[in-house]
């Protein structure tokens, strides 16, 4: 494909994308295809000779769109949001064109350096303690991970390396395997499944601790678990505090947990994957109080801050243990500037990495902090609108406090009734929700996801739920 | 940013990208900036109010380009290539616009299903045994990983889970930790650093085995190591065979290694990250002979097959152990179609995933198999051209056989002499190479990387090296 065709093709794609997004409200949010729908629509093998780009454009509505779940429809209320914005799309075009692999500083200094500075911009927007920022002049700093799952795993592996080192210093006769068999980490029962998965991947025990009536992990619970495990000869080494759980957007008691971790010299990782974006607004920072006690902090601009996936921002007060845990340094990756700037390959699971800081740069500049805050506030306002509509209907109840853009609710009555309601909602296909369950109670989750969502959409979504609930009761 | 501005902005970016790539030969391949160059060029914090997209366009040459190492310059010969193509850039625009997270089938059926079919297309292009393909109707199939590092780690974790399960069946009294402390994996001393790193991350012992005079791991060496370890009470569980090592593009003896692995019931993973793309050409498939004995196979279309990073293609004959190793299944991710199509979240380290199959679809269709093959053949031809130029100069010697697009060479003489030459080459800044070292011998690596590379460029690169070598001898 020559550059002339590229310009035509990309222009046609821009038109298509703008039409797709500006009219996304008109498309059914959930596809109705059955598994295996796509294979008969395309040839069995790659073509031998090149096709025209117009052939691909024609196939988009025939092959792809019937099978797309439209995450950016205002009718999409499942999971948590994933970001979509015009500035981020254009930033990725540039990233794809430069197409450098930023594993070391020399492999493309701009790729590393823009990331260092953008993570400082972002940390300042969230008012993170300066101990997390590269601009503070120490070892600290931020890094873009692919996902919060990877950030949790990276922190766990750093904590594991640190714990092994400490245990060996105290008991030189112990082998690594003996130490690892004694390590134990902690999170709330409401922590994301990826935390439990990080324990599996890292080969260490992870205890899921009970939460209080507001679904928060409390300091006392953690303290009791740590003491119990120490008595049993185990080595507590890692705690994940979740700010904004996936189940119900509860916030672990970070101040209390921080005190316990600091007193026990246990690594504290804060997973604020979804809710972290809200900390750009001063009025929500009370939920992040105690963050100065953490060793690492992570949130996903690719969820709620208009930066397209993948862009998971992670800060480490001291990356030394993470770097040491992963450090394998072959000659072909060495360079003369080593040590004077971060070689981000030591901060992450993969070796390769794209130039993702461009997305942060474009989005923060083209929205400006004020519009990013406005986006968060508007979506939280819409969640409260839905909450108020629901509270006017005595058949329903709110399952847990609405703080962010998520409303957890249920029909008063049995789990079965609520399961039926969800099945009707998703079956009808006008809106899309997913359920959750805490301590035996099944409930529905309505997340405000699309940046196109307006009051009218929320009223429509409520009407759909309310109407289907009537059918259910008949 | 409204859709009108987006269309203008993306059009301006297309123009910029086309100019950048079509004239990339004119830019110095290596930046001359010092660490820390970028911070003074941008404000200390994100702007409060939105800027104009034109402001960003103006900053590209001022802030970004001075710090870019131009991986797509025909003068870039470092590492291995990373891909860049117009069809892939446009595919990513669409992926960013749809912006679905394909962790389950229902989260966007098209995202999963196009991936299943594209990995079949790709597997057929490489002539992989049908036991690896989803179209064979069994459990097998392909998946897009972010990087070869992740594929190596995923295979290791699957192999580890399988080995633990087997050992427990034989000795139910053993704990997981006791079994893990006995596990041992193997690779060649020339395997990529990410293999050693996968061992560190997975918390298992990994032995780097000696290679023959052609830098290949041989079956006998592996067999002897396995027998020795078994005698010592260890449990051999995982072997990585590399096809196209990073150091010198050597090929492990896959047929022999496969026999040893199959006889010992050890998981065999094939890492063909770079060289795998060449197997789309029938004349290079002899290097992949024995692949039918492997459990998993991986190569990176994002290296040499014109699909932009990240797109690392991995096939598993039986993904069961990988899926079981990672499976954590919360209610909010369950859906009714579970089991009828792959839920790719169980096949990878992260939970989230982008719609990357679009890149494969666009690239295979818009190039056609014949042009992809032509690309590989041309680049291998250019490597042989450089080899022949070098062989005409009696000061130089070829370090290892040229099979793909990499030429490993050195000045006859000491390592120090070659280190000086490399320093002069990179210092002069006209071309960029990285070195490697095998068994004490330091050598220079010249990789054919850019799709813009022509014969004239190779003659220029050779002239630069040859001239600087004269200065060195003076």
From TrEMBL, chains A, B:
The modification N6-(pyridoxal phosphate)lysine is found at residue 303. It is an enzyme of class 4 (lyase). GO terms for molecular function: aromatic-L-amino-acid decarboxylase activity; pyridoxal phosphate binding. Gene3D superfamilies: Aspartate Aminotransferase, domain 1, dopa decarboxylase, N-terminal domain, Type I PLP-dependent aspartate aminotransferase-like (Major domain). Coiled coil: none annotated. Its EC number is 4.1.1.28. This is Aromatic-L-amino-acid decarboxylase.
């Amino acid at each position: 494909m020559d550059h002339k065709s590229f310009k035509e093709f990309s222009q046609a794609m821009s038109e298509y994308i703008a039409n797709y997004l500006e009219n996304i409200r008109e498309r059914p949010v959930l596809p109705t295809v059955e598994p295996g729908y796509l294979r008969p629509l395309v040839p069995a093998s790659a073509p031998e000779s090149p096709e025209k780009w117009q052939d691909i454009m024609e196939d988009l509505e025939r092959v792809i769109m019937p099978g797309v779940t439209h995450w950016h429809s205002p009718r999409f209320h499942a999971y948590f949001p994933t970001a979509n914005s015009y500035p981020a799309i254009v930033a990725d075009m540039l990233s794809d064109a430069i197409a450098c692999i930023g594993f070391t500083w020399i492999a493309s200094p701009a790729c590393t350096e823009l990331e260092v500075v953008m993570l400082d911009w972002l940390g300042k927007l969230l008012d993170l303690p300066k101990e997390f920022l590269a601009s503070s002049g120490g070892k600290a700093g931020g890094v873009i991970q692919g996902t919060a799952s990877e950030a949790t795993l990276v922190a766990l592996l750093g904590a594991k390396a640190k714990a092994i080192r400490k245990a060996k210093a105290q008991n030189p006769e112990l082998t690594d395997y003996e130490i690892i068999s004694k390590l134990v980490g902690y999170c709330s029962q409401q922590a994301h499944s990826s935390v439990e998965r990080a324990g599996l991947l890292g080969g260490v025990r992870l205890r899921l601790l009970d939460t209080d009536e507001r679904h928060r992990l409390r300091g006392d619970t953690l303290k009791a678990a740590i003491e119990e495990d120490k008595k049993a000869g185990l080595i507590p080494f890692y705690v994940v505090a979740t700010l904004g759980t996936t189940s119900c957007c509860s916030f672990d008691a970070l101040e209390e947990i921080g005190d316990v971790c600091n007193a026990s010299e246990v690594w504290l990782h804060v997973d604020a994957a979804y809710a972290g974006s809200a900390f750009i607004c001063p009025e929500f920072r009370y939920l992040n109080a105690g963050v100065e006690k953490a060793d690492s902090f992570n949130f996903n601009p690719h969820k709620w801050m208009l930066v397209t996936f993948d862009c998971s921002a992670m800060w480490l007060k001291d990356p030394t243990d993470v770097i040491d845990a992963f450090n394998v340094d072959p000659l072909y990756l060495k360079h003369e500037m080593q040590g004077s700037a971060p070689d981000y390959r030591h901060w992450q699971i993969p070796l390769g990495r794209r130039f993702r800081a461009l997305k942060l740069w474009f989005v923060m500049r083209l929205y400006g902090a004020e519009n990013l805050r406005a986006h968060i506030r508007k979506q939280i306002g819409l969640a409260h609108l839905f909450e108020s509509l629901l509270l006017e209907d005595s058949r329903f109840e709110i399952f847990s406090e609405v703080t962010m853009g998520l409303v957890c609710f249920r029909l008063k009555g049995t789990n079965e009734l609520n399961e039926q309601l969800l099945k009707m909602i998703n079956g009808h296909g006008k809106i899309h929700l997913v359920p959750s369950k805490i301590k035996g109670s099944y409930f529905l989750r309505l997340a405000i996801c699309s940046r196109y969502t307006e009051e009218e959409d929320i009223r429509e979504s409520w009407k759909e739920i309310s109407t289907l609930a009537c059918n259910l009761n008949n």
